[in-house]
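Hi R.,

As promised, here are both runs. First protein below:
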Amino acid sequence: MASLQMATVLNSVSPLTVPRSNSLGSAPRNVSTKAFAVPRREAISLILSTSIFSGIALPNAALAQPTVGLREYIDSFDGYSFQYPKNWIQVRGAGADIFFRDPYVLDENISVELSSPSSSKYKSVEDLGPPEEAGKKVLKQYLTEFMSTRLGVRRESSVLSTSSRVADDGRMYYQVEVNIKSYANNNELAVMPQDRVARLEWNRRYLSVLGVENNQLYELRLQTPENVFVEEEYDLRQVMDSFRVNKVSA
């Protein structure tokens, strides 16, 4: 019976489609994905690991799933493309131009942000200054977005690395990596300081790739818990290196 169920699951696996509505109300956007074949052994490994861990309670632990290959996302309407883990799912209404997340590690996601074409006239990513200066701006933006009004919340942050590279399309891209830790008091209303003990809420790595085309600034954003990043660093860097911006026809 177990073998029959396994075979049924494997035969039901189908490529993930990524529909995209046109928020500007014009003709349907030319958005596509390209799936890469997943070895049968990896599919079996994913199913087995899911069934094994589903019955085990592991508080405060993120379970990274086995590598399942990458899928390419192409948005020729806005002019960019990148690869992402093919088992990640699209989330609509997240505020970004496109947003995918890991269905198992909910703190792990990828998104793309674009500057407004009417209010920005970027000619090159170097308009941001050197990579080090761009890194400071990226970190400041993250901290602004994560600003909390809760009592007793404290954030620690640092820029881990900044770099620039010229990709195979001849364009220059900046890469920025930052770490942000969030601490919160276990009893923020306590009167005595010794009763307000700060504890670590989360510890995340944020990876950004910046590129310029069509007079717009494009930013690919990857968010992942630090402990998961250690396990998935190779795959996540592949995702970062895959980001490209493209000329859009007028």
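And here is the second one, sequence first, then its structure tokens:
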Amino acid sequence: MDRTDLETYQVQLSQVDAALQAEPDNAELASLRDELKELINLTEQALAQAAASSSKVESSRKAASTPSLAWSAGDECMAKYSADGAWYPARITAVAGSEQNRVYTVVFKGYNSTEQAKPSDLKPLPPSYANTVSATKRKHETDEEKERKKKKNEKKLETRAAKAKEQNQKQATWQKFAKKSEKKGVHIAGVSGTSIFKTPDNPLGKVGVTGSGKGMTQVTQQGKHKFAPNLDDNP
């Protein structure tokens, strides 16, 4: 049976109804009308069952052609929100249920709301969203690297400043010590006066040698002591 047969039965029923109006007491026409009504009813039921069966077969075929994804805890996905039926980015936090009846716990990003979802309520993230996330992650990593370098340079500058300060303090302490020594009559080369490392004025002098370039000290020959006995005189 198909819809064409149903339309044929409906046309025949209308013709029998018209004939009964002319002959309302015709028992044969009345019986034919009842048979046509029952036939039409059976045909409509058969067509409805055929449509339902076809729909189930189509759904099964689509399900078989589209394998379900094996989601795991920690996966990023798009999840359907039960309140409005819209899809939002989410993260799977837990997986429960049997293999034939999985139940996923998801947390919607930006809202921190948690829901239980079926496999049909999950789908992969669109490529555009994944690319945006990757670009944002790379930018975030670049910013972190810049911040690390900035802190490292600041630490180097602080270390150099501390060393310079320490050196200045040591130099000030030495200068203070040298001045006190000078007041006590102790001369410390390089602090006041002439440095021992200054180039001598004498061209024969050497740097770092005190008195360099001067002539040798003359040795005076000693004479005889007036009380010394004359060894040349004989007794």
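A quick note on the second one: The first helix runs from residue 3 to 22. Let me know what you think.

Best,
J.
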